[in-house]
Write a structure and sequence with these properties.
This protein is of the alpha/beta class. It has helices at residues 11-23, 39-43, 74-81, 96-101, 103-124, 156-175, 198-207, 227-239, 258-271, 297-303, 311-329; strands spanning 2-6, 27-32, 49-50, 64-68, 86-89, 128-134, 178-184, 186-188, 212-215, 221-222, 224-226, 247-250, 256-257, 279-282.
Length: 330
């Protein structure tokens, strides 16, 4: 298959590309504006070619290629999608705080960006489109979250992701694109050295001898999913037939408080011989939901998928990754 991965220099995209290259038989074209990930990050996946503006976009001669461009640039999107079989759309603004600080920018990237990508798929006749969403469109709900809940976004980020889900549904029904929405849990794991989410941030601060700030009382809950499980879900969403227009909760179906996460992280740090950092409590963040975990039965029944990596094992692997990376860069 010929894959386009938007935001492919980032944490999720690199993990998917690495798995596809290991499987063999795939061609991967990364579309990334390098605002977060870098060429050096992609190089960790493997050697890659640079896509030039004067090359033939229908030639997929390299296993891995990078087109530096933006999802808001119609010409770059058209070039990237020429001849593609599937698009995995990961490029986005990914934070609630950033969306609260600048909701207009969040809208441009997350709403106009996916609309531009879907238009590109329509023109290039790309059959399958996988959209990375989250639980944010559902907002404050009584969990477990499931696909039939009415959305009530609690942040501009949640609203922009909900708009993306709506466009996926519309382009499936109007134009026949097999658009599949995956609502990711809180993703962590190896390769997350640039990620600003809680697991990566806490490990980096602990390694630097800094204190860890918990927003609020720490009883807010999330569903933490290891990157390897997420990659399997993305692959299935791209290849399982008959799921166009569907939405799936992709998480572990386990509810973990932030305080519990910190304790499990400390266990992993102790096992790796790390000194434990101090913890303090700050003010709650605007737009954050209190409870969040998912019912993943639909993904199990329709995708044949369910999470395999325990939080304890995943955290141990993640801590080890950060320590190994520090040793390599020392």
């Amino acid at each position: 298959m010929k894959w386009v991965i938007t935001g492919g220099c980032g944490f999720l995209g690199r993990a998917l590309a690495q798995e596809l290259l290991a499987a063999g038989g795939h061609r991967i074209r990364v579309l990334d504006n390098l605002s977060v990930g870098s060429r050096e990050d992609l190089q960790e996946v493997g050697p890659f070619a640079e896509c030039g503006a004067h090359a033939d976009p229908l030639l997929w001669s390299d296993d891995l290629a990078l087109l530096e461009g933006d999802i808001l640039d119609s010409k770059a999107v058209e070039w990237a999608l020429s001849g593609a079989d599937v698009v995995v759309h990961l490029a986005a603004n990914t934070g609630v705080p950033q969306s609260v600080a600048d909701p207009v920018s969040d809208c441009h990237t997350n709403v106009l960006g996916i609309l531009n990508m879907l238009e590109g798929c329509r023109k290039a006749e790309v059959g399958r489109f996988v959209f990375a969403s989250s639980g944010a469109p559902l907002g404050e709900q009584i969990p477990p979250l499931h696909e039939e809940m009415a959305p009530h976004p609690a942040s501009p980020y949640g609203a922009s992701k909900l708009a993306g889900e709506g466009y996926c549904s519309a382009y499936h029904h109007c134009f026949g694109i097999d658009a599949v929405t995956l609502r990711f849990g809180n993703v962590y794991g190896e390769g997350s050295h640039r990620k600003g989410s809680v697991v990566a941030k806490f490990i980096r601060r602990a390694m630097a001898g800094e204190k860890l700030e918990i927003y609020g009382d720490g009883n807010q809950t999330r569903d933490y999913i290891h990157i390897s499980d997420l990659v399997t879900a993305m692959y299935k969403a791209a290849t399982v037939p008959g799921i166009g227009g569907e939405t799936f909760q992709i998480a572990t179906a386990s509810e973990t408080t932030l305080l519990e996460l910190v304790e499990k992280m400390f266990d992993a740090m102790r096992a790796e011989g790390m000194a434990l950092p101090e913890v303090f409590h700050g003010a709650p963040r605007t737009g954050d939901v209190v409870r969040n975990f998912s019912d993943t039965r639909k993904a199990h029944e329709r995708l044949g998928w369910q999470a395999q990596v325990s939080l304890e094992d995943g955290l141990r692997r993640t801590v080890r990754y950060f320590l190994d990376r520090e040793e390599e860069n020392a």
